[in-house]
Amino acid sequence: MLCRVPESTFPRLPNDPTPSSPAVSARMSRQSSRDTGPERALRRALFAAGLRYRVHHLVSLRPRRHADIAFTRAKVAVFVDGCYWHGCPAHGTSPKANSEWWKAKIERNRLRDRDTDERLMAEGWLAARVWEHENPIEAAAKIAALVRRRRSSSL
Length: 155
Known about the structure:
Elements: H1 22-29, H2 37-48, E1 54-60, E2 65-71, E3 76-81, H3 99-122, E4 126-131, H4 136-153
Parallel strand pairs: 3-4
Antiparallel strand pairs: 1-2, 2-3
Helix pairs in contact: 2-4
């Protein structure tokens, strides 16, 4: 059973916009940040390719960053980025309500992604990013090649 924390537990910050409607607020609160459909499809394809991995694995302690899929021996961290939340050039959209706030929010997400990639590289990891709209079979093939290449180079 899923336990929901009351919204009042998280006070609004001064710069947080008010939701444009109760329906929008409810829809956004239901957005999953893990185990999304694209993540599950990619994991199935990777598993079918014979690869084993960790899910939502902590790959960097400061600041805390979790990879959607991690190959710990090969040090490959895979992130499945949502088109809306990470500003996909092909499918990202800009909402009409609170547009300046959302533009800044998505830009902060993109900056955090770049920061994560740089921190992981400094720790010897390779960050692989997949857009949610990518074909999971094709994405899995690319990731499998990366993992196998890194495993063979570390022997």
